[in-house]
Design goal:
single chain, alpha/beta, Aspartate Aminotransferase, domain 2, Aspartate Aminotransferase, domain 1, three-stranded antiparallel sheet, 13 helices, 39% helix, binds pyridoxal-5'-phosphate
């Protein structure tokens, strides 16, 4: 049995809205389906202002512009993340300062953030790895005491919560991804949450290439023009039409994904109890949103051997982030601090196949193989 790492959920009816949208005669950005998607995210999660984007990377770039990042400003973020988190701020000339993760959860350590703050620090970016919340009360407190922006890279974290608050809605800005490897998908796609009301208007202008066209379409002004910097961050309405099918099945998708997650947790528990591996730690304030399932092995060698072993049994497991502070692009820009927890998570994390249609039988097969690896 061949088990891929990911299998995007693309039912045939995904194309119904796409075709309907195209036949309506207009599929440029900010159309009918974009508005439907905006309405869903605002009502379902109480997000104040959302804007669909072409990717989470783009939403992060918008957040960096909205934080008014200028050359020389310092931005603190984890090294254990996707490069888009850093790129968005580097593109504005920021100095990226990487912080280590916690010991037991691969999320940024608030105590490390506090140590790295200088007079030049302007923003903190947090990543809710695998949809598990960072310690947001502590992080917001640090930010408020120092007058800093907080951006939540919530690419993994749709429908996940911190003490009951939806992730992405706590910092000044939040960003989601609808890349085909995430919970709900449009191939490529993303969403920016603007939680600080005073930035809503500017966000819409940056989204529309630096023009006030959105306000013009609403009839608030009688002509539109170029009023700020910006780019074409809004997706085609075809992307929104595709996403709309996923939104209509949001609860179904999420119920299914959470089942897959908890089933792995249950099946792997005996191996965890024997000390062979660790399942994800979910703090009391956090929730599981069925984004990915990762295990942590005792060493990098064991992780790499297990990856190989699973591959020979047709199971596509994967490692995850290579630390950004030691990457070919950044290593000579990093200040040399060791980030031991980041390095350890990078060496020892293994992600198991995870998708909506993964069956219990397949999950049992995968865990049996993991078990056989340790028996052998
Ligand atoms: C997937 C991901 C992104 C990028 O999302 P895109 O929509 O592909 O741009 C950014 N940050 C994190 C943490 C991600 O996992």
């Amino acid at each position: 049995m061949q088990i891929p790492f990911n299998k995007p959920f693309i039912p045939w009816f995904s194309f119904r809205h796409l075709i309907g949208g195209a036949l309506s005669g207009t599929i440029a950005g900010n159309g009918r389906y974009t508005k439907k998607c905006h309405a869903f995210f605002e009502s379902r999660f109480g997000f104040k202002k959302v804007l669909m984007t072409t990717s989470c990377s783009d939403a992060l770039e918008m957040a960096a512009i909205l934080c008014s990042i200028e050359p020389g400003d310092e931005v603190i973020m984890p090294s254990f993340t996707f490069m888009s988190t850093a790129n968005a701020f580097l593109l504005r000339g920021a100095k990226v300062v990487f912080a280590d993760t916690l010991q037991d959860v691969p999320n940024i350590d608030p105590a490390e953030i506090e140590k790295l703050i200088t007079a030049k620090t302007k923003a903190i970016v947090v990543v809710h790895y695998s949809g598990v919340a960072c310690e947001m009360d502590r992080i917001m407190d640090i930010a408020n005491r120092n007058g800093l922006f907080v951006v939540e890279d919530a690419a993994h974290a749709i429908d996940s919560f911190y003490n009951g608050k939806p992730l992405g809605s706590i910092g000044h800005f939040g960003t989601f991804s609808f890349h085909e490897t995430k919970n709900i998908i449009s191939g490529e796609g993303g969403l920016l949450m603007v939680n600080a009301r005073e930035f809503a208007k500017r966000a819409e202008i940056i989204w529309e290439k630096g023009t006030n066209r959105a306000a013009f379409y609403r009839g608030e002004i009688d002509k539109y023009g170029w009023v700020d910097i910006g780019s074409s961050y809004l997706p085609s309405d075809a992307v929104a039409a595709f996403l709309y099918t996923q939104i209509q099945r949001f609860d179904q998708i999420q119920t299914r994904r959470k089942k897959v997650w908890w089933n792995y947790a249950r099946l792997l528990k005996p191996l965890e109890e024997k000390g062979f591996l660790k399942c994800p730690v979910i703090p009391d304030f956090a929730t599981v949103n069925g984004n990915i399932f990762y295990i942590t092995l005792q060493s990098g060698e064991i992780r790499d051997e297990l990856l190989k072993y699973l591959k020979t049994h047709d199971v596509s497991a994967l490692f995850h982030y290579l630390p950004l502070h030691t990457s070919p692009y950044f290593s000579d820009k990093h200040d040399g601090r060791a980030l031991p927890n980041t390095d350890r998570f990078s060496d020892t994390i293994l992600r198991l196949p995870f998708y909506n249609s993964l069956t219990r039988r397949q999950q049992k097969y995968i865990v049996d193989k993991v078990s056989k690896f340790f028996a052998g």
